[in-house]
Every structure is written in structure tokens, then in C-alpha cells.
Design goal:
Two copies of one chain form a homodimer.
Chain A (H helix, E strand, L loop, with lengths): L12 H6 L4 H10 L4 H10 L6 H13 L3 E6 L7 E6 L1 H28 L5
Antiparallel strand pairs in A: 1-2
Helix pairs in contact in A: 2-5
The first copy, chain A, binds a DNA duplex through α1 and α4.
DNA sequence: TATTAGTACCTTGTATAACAAAGTACCTTG
DNA sequence: CAAGGTACTTTGTTATACAAGGTACTAATA
């Protein structure tokens, strides 16, 4: 029994791959220069990391709550005030660790690929 | 209000980074050679991708249900019978796509690092 | 033939990330 | 003051990972 086969959501693989990753790129962006949500969205999009509002805002709140970023309100000439986020000292430390984690994961996966995909094109 | 600061679970960053990724390495391993759960766990551990039983078994069930892998029971001389998993044709196709996704995510993140971490050590 | 240890597989409950969708509020312009 | 754009927020859903505990088969041994 239970021989049913469901279709595999290929369209979601990139999205699934990103789970839990986003804090790294987002911290990277904020760490480089103070900025606000819609601009972060643009930068992520430019880097081909598509993210939506409903993902980013809660993420920023989490980073704030964790003390990794801080924000100040800033006037805008084109609309309502903006929450300008900047990275904290503790955020920089975490960012370093995230980068190490990334390197490590990266080399783990790439070594697996090398090991098992040799000779494929 | 709400100025509390929670501690950031640094110990979990690697684990979080892996969310949604595992099907890629697991498919890679099974695609290379038929094998069974405890051996997959060993191979992942060797590659520094720590995973626990409670994660792997449901993942294998999902891959099976999706038709990406199949299994046959095989006798063992050292214990109970094993579910030997092998990749299916459809699994190979998904594996290719996952590899592309990985390359793409990889280069996206690395380009962000290059862009924003220039000059840091 | 119980008992024990080792191997293999499975399930349940919890936490949490990502997302879609909808909503609130501010600002400028006509 | 209505309309449109900008910015921020929230709610409900889906799905992954994990901890912890459980079931079951096999072989060795008392």
C-alpha cells in the first residue's frame, strides 16, 4: 500500500534552499551600509536572491530583537519615514560566524559534488 | 516598549543554514550508489553535514513519495533487513536541477560577499 | 529459551523560516 | 480631500529540521 507518487515541487527548490540563509545576506547588506527594507529588497533582487516583504520584515524584527541590528527613523522626501537599519557590534560578530558557516557548508557540499559527480557533465 | 534583546542562537546557524538543503546532498549520495539510511548518515557526517535519524528518515520518505528514489529490501548479515535506496530517472532530473540551484545560490551569495566584504579579513 | 546488545526503521511533538495576502499609515500632488 | 505611491506590519499556512521516544529484527550468550 501507499504506493502513491506525488509531484515534486521543482519550482520551490530554490526557495527551499534559501530557508534559514537569508539572515546572512541581509546582515551582509546592512553591515556594508545603513539602509531600509525596500532598498534591501532591491539589493537582494539584484543579487538574484528574491525575497518578499512578508519574509524580510519579520526577519528584520528578529535581527533587531536579537540585538544584531538597530534602527533609527529617518525622514524621506518621497514618502513616509523609514527605519534605517545598521549593524551592531554583536551583529558584526555574528556576521563573521555566518560567513564561516557559509564557507564551511559551501566546501562540504562542493566536496560532495566533486566526490559523486565526477565524470558527469 | 519591546526593547528586549534575545540572545542569538549562534550554535544553530549551521543547522539553520541547512534547512531545505538536505535533499540535495542526500540525492547526490543515493544517486552515486544504492545505499541505506545509516550509511547515508555516515557519509553526510564524513562530509561535515551532520544530520540525525529523525531528519533523514522522513526526508527519505518524502523523496520516495515524490518518486525521486525507490528502495528494495535487502538482507544483512549484521542485523535486520535494510531499505536499499536508489535514485530514479525522475530523481536524476531533479538532482540536476538541484545542482543548478546550488550553483546559482552559491554564486549569488559569493557575489554579495565579494561586493560587501572587500577589504575585510 | 530468555536476555542483552546492536542494528535498522519509524513516529510524534515542537520550533521556526518563508511566503501569500491583506491591512495600516504616512506623504505628496492635483 | 481623493488618489497613488511608499513604507511598515500582521495573520495564517506550509514545510523542514530536530529531539526524543518507540518498534522490531538479528545474533551472541547465559
Amino acid at each position: 500500500m501507499s504506493e502513491e507518487t506525488s509531484t515534486y515541487r521543482v519550482e520551490n527548490t530554490e526557495s527551499q534552499m534559501r530557508k534559514g540563509f537569508l539572515e546572512f545576506p541581509v546582515l551582509l547588506i546592512i553591515g556594508s551600509k545603513s539602509t531600509y527594507a525596500p532598498d534591501i529588497l532591491k539589493q537582494l533582487k539584484t543579487a538574484n536572491l528574491l525575497v518578499v516583504e512578508g519574509t524580510l520584515y519579520p526577519l528584520l524584527s528578529r535581527l533587531k530583537r536579537a540585538g544584531l541590528v538597530a534602527y533609527t527613523w529617518e525622514e524621506s522626501k518621497t514618502g513616509p519615514p523609514r527605519k534605517m537599519y545598521s549593524i551592531t557590534k554583536s551583529g558584526q560578530e555574528v556576521l563573521s560566524k555566518l560567513e564561516s558557516s557559509w564557507e564551511s557548508l559551501n566546501s562540504s557540499v562542493n566536496s560532495l559534488i566533486k566526490k559523486y559527480e565526477v565524470g558527469k557533465k
